[in-house]
Amino acid sequence: MLMKIEWQRAAAYVTALDAKRRVLLTRFEIPGHPKSGSWTLPGGGMEWGEQAHQTAARELREETGLEAEIGSLLGSSPSGFTQMHPILANLVMHSA
């Protein structure tokens, strides 16, 4: 008898505000994906051995080209996202 294993992946997302308190968003684009075109916070899946603040900084750099010091954790929650199921970790960006 085969055991069914549900796969989950942790992820971290950045809540980045500018001096006017505007939130930085990125656009999710995967052709054919039902959520393609949706706006989201910069972020993504954790690499093996990374901590949430490291993931947040790496994803911010990869998706926007911005470097930032990652602040304290704002919160976390389980969330479903097609085949990924991230644990959201919203972090505050402080300009470096």
UniProtKB/TrEMBL annotation:
Cofactor annotation: Mg(2+)
The keyword Hydrolase appears for this protein: yes
UniProt keyword terms in alphabetical order: Hydrolase
An MF annotation (GO) of this entry: hydrolase activity
Signal sequence extent: none
All copies of domain Nudix hydrolase, residue ranges: 7-96
Family annotation (InterPro entries): Nudix_hydrolase, NUDIX_hydrolase-like_dom_sf, NUDIX_hydrolase_CS, NUDIX_hydrolase_dom
Transit peptide keyword on record: no
Entries under Pfam families matching the protein: NUDIX
Family: Belongs to the Nudix hydrolase family.
Name of the protein in its database record: NUDIX hydrolase
